[in-house]
Amino acid sequence: MTDPTPGRSADDVLRELDELRQDDLPTHGGRTLAYVYDSGVAEADELGRRALAMFGATNGLDPTAFPSLLRMESDLVATARDMFHGGPAMVGSVTSGGTESILLAVKTARDAHPEIADPVIVVPSTIHAAFHKACHYFGVERVSVPVDPSTFRADPSAIAVALDQHHGRVVLVAVSTPSYAHGVVDPVAEVAAITRPRGIRLHVDACIGGWVLPWADVAAPWDFAVEGVTSLSADLHKYAYAPKGVSLLLHADPSLRRDQFFASADWPGYTMLNATVQSTRSGGPLAAAWSVVRYFGDAGYARLVRSALDGTRELVEGVGRVDHLRVLAEPDSTLVAIATDGTCDVFTISDLMLERGWFVQPQMAFGDSPATVHVSLSAATAPAVPDFLAALAESVVEAVERGPVQVDEALRAAAEAIDPSTLDDAAFDGLLQVAGLAGEGGSIGLPEQMAPVNALLDVAPPRLREALLVAFLDRLSR
Ligand SMILES: *Cc1c(COP(=O)(O)O)cnc(C)c1O
Question: Between the CA atoms of 36, 37, 40 and 41, what dihedral angle is there, to the nearest 10 degrees?
């Protein structure tokens, strides 16, 4: 054996960590308009980090061993009960994120109906892809129904038709408040009026709106105030401005939650007893969320939401004044989808914005929804909206000069003809090179300009797009 690698000093390792962070998107400063949520309050960030560190080694596996965690979880659920108009019977669990909350909501609804051999969920086409993942993981069929083509809101009548078509098989309907892609709130009461008489569960995905809408002037009730809403997800690591790794899944009463839990005494170790997907789970994110929620309080969130919403309004108005751009749907919250008139493309605009220090997220065309630039406004971004709009206007002028990325006709035709299930590893290697996701000799890495890659992915059918990106991820992490 060779000599063991010596350990490094803590200072050296911290320096290495600093270096590693250099290429990451900034998490603070208000210029990263997806993935991160920034309150702009340094003291809250510091508090969250300290709580995360203090509880990083605690284990939520056994709440009797760490009663502090049970207490903090109960406190957060109690706060959420007030915010979301839950009744006295409402219960909830802290999970690791929106996806875990949604996975559990779907699994719980499925397991509540063991007599249904081929369960179905009915969702609007705009529902978050976490529901697709849940269906894939848990063997549930997903029936996606079209949304209203002018507002991008769920269409209750389309949901009613799907429920009748799949009568006796539907275990859950879900809607979004708001949807991620368009930022609009679905008509929860109208959908509940359809699900409730049929005895079908209704989940409200408030993952991104949960810590915004309670302080916004939303016209219609959308949470547990609506009779028939059986579960609701709300992420603390988004607009509660807590560090990553924490969300809430709430049920209207304990009977609706029962099938969420898992126990196994069928082995020689401890009886495994879990409320969530994880078993050993860090108390860090929970403690951090608890701390940040206490720190801001109702008044703090009211102020942060006001700021983010004012910024959103200013941004929507500003986009309206930029030639060649339009806001796709009037946002009900802090998310905005911006489309072009075809003289330029959103992929080029995204690249040009990044050159100017702003990260915006391109969204591909899907159904009636054209390709858009997605922007999630947070409190820290609001004061920078005038700068953002100036950078956006410059980027659009330049993008119009360049014109939209042209995808080679032969390539487009090939993309449409390929059946990804027939491709082997070598074929994927070749395709990744054609798509610009791999260099000569198969070296994997992202090009400086993402627009050509995104434009090609945009014309690829969704199945091929998925397969290509999975192949990319696989090679990236080999
Ligand atoms: C973010 C989000 C999710 C998924 O949450 P993760 O925390 O990324 O797992 C689900 N639904 C909506 C509407 C979201 O915005």
Answer: -110
